[in-house]
Amino acid sequence: MYKSIDKLQHSFLDFNQPMGLHMNPDNRWIKMADCIPWDKFEIKYAELFPSDIGNVAKPLRMALGALIIQTKFQYSDRELVEQLTENPYLQYFIGLPGYQEEAPFDASTLVLFRKRISAEMLMEANEYLLSHKDDDNNTPPSSWGSDDNGSSKEDINKGTLTLDATCAPANIRYPQDVSLLNEAREKLETIIYRFCKYYGLPLPRRYKRRARKDYLAFAKSKKHSAKKIRKALRKQLSYVARDIRYLDEFMSDGYAMTEKEIDLYLTIIMLYEQQKYMYDNKIHSVEHRIVSISQPWLRPIVRGKAKAPVEFGAKFDLSIDSEGYGRIEKISFEAYNESTCLIDAVERFKNRTGHYPKRVLADQIYRTRKNRNYCKDHGIRLSGPKLGRPCANAKIDKKQEYQDNTDRIEVERTFSLSKRCYGMGCITTKLKETQLTSVALSVFVTNLFKIQKRILCALLHLFRFWDRYKYWSLQMSY
């Protein structure tokens, strides 16, 4: 159940400060809280609670504000609750009516916050925030302008759209085939033991100690030749196949698994079939390959980077507008071809601004024939060298290509900032939906602090101009 608060957008004067506590109204968290349209976001959040039955849920400002703080400082759930209990500025940011010494919620409540605030909600909130960031300055969108003759500028291309893809790696160990099969064997042995203990069945022979000894002998060896790897795979496959056969016999006799065990068992069955297929055909790749038993939705994403050629996590396309703000165009755990996102990203740019971009900065994988023809038909210059022989203006084209590559680095800076400072470099959440939420939250918080930084810079320039104006007025008076 969710009850809307009459005034979710509290001001600094409404915050109840105890005797002896003096808070600075120019604090960054106070200014950021005043910049976020909490009341607008609450409308979407209230739709998640259609029923009036149950406990009253925490307000949106508390849920989203806590996740923003956690993304900024990379606190654990327990550490975040401790920081909120000790810091009055953070308490104001999450919407508490006044400073309190008690914790606003338990650490386990953050899991519910990440489940409720989905990636789609954060992407919509990010779009609303970017489209209304200039409302305080009364700056109309660029699509509202008109030329001197009174005709609309919707058909004139302007602006730059930068597009690139990356992976947000999950916090899992590097998936080796032998270690995955060994983990599957251990989990199957646990299910068999639970079956026999719960239903009073005799415990079958599982060769548990021998299987563990074989795995440790392989794991501790310094060099893994192809012959050793195939031998270890053959042994682990036989152990897993025996345990699967035991469970099939139990279930054929009428004994049932729990709901959690069913999902785990189906994942192990798929893992065994993939490993058996690769072993029999002497190959090392298969479609929809499972790299983690606890997170079977993760897929290997080949990025070709020197540090990590293959990453395991959510892959997404990020677009950067002319002002440097990012938007997620597509996100998926499957290794899709990012060139299919260019047309959709350009059309969304057109819907936001009312005109097509003047140029699109993207790397080579986006420069397919379909995308080139699309950009040519709409008067968009796609970065990169032209097809065919060099023309007479080859020197000018080389200079333009160099400038495009220089400007395209902005999206790499955004990736680096989000991964170093806002948690995108290692996603530690365990559920599928919460991992997508963590990625979207990282992009949202990156834009949020960029907006705050630009506002502070604008105020600083305004103060400097005012000081110069007073100095000039004083000199003119003399």
Question: What is the topology?
Answer:
Elements: H1 28-35, H2 38-46, H3 60-73, H4 77-86, H5 88-93, H6 109-116, H7 119-131, E1 160-169, H8 177-199, H9 208-220, H10 226-252, H11 259-281, E2 300-302, E3 310-320, E4 326-332, H12 342-353, E5 359-361, H13 369-377, E6 381-382, H14 394-421, H15 432-477
Parallel strand pairs: 1-5, 5-6
Antiparallel strand pairs: 1-3, 2-3, 3-4
Helix pairs in contact: 3-15, 7-15, 8-9, 8-10, 8-11, 9-10, 10-11
Task: Please characterize this protein's 3D structure.
The protein is an alpha/beta fold and about 475 residues long. It has helices at about 30-35, 40-45, 60-75, 75-85, 90-95, 110-115, 120-130, 175-200, 210-220, 225-250, 260-280, 340-355, 370-375, 395-420, 430-475, and strands spanning about 160-170, 300, 310-320, 325-330, 360, 380. Strands 1, 2, 3, 4, 5 and 6 form a six-stranded mixed β-sheet that branches. It starts with about 25 loop residues before the first helix and ends with a helix. Residues about 135-155 have low confidence and may be disordered.
Low-confidence stretches: 137-154
Name the structural class. Answer: alpha/beta
Number of helices: 15
Report the span from N to C terminus. Answer: 69 Å
Number of distinct beta strands: 6
Major sheet: 6 strands, mixed
What is the average of the pLDDT values? 87
Assign a percent range to the helix content. Answer: 40-55%
Describe the global form: flat
- Beta-strand content bin: 5-15%
Q: What string, H for helix and E for strand, traces the elements in order? A: HHHHHHHEHHHHEEEHEHEHH
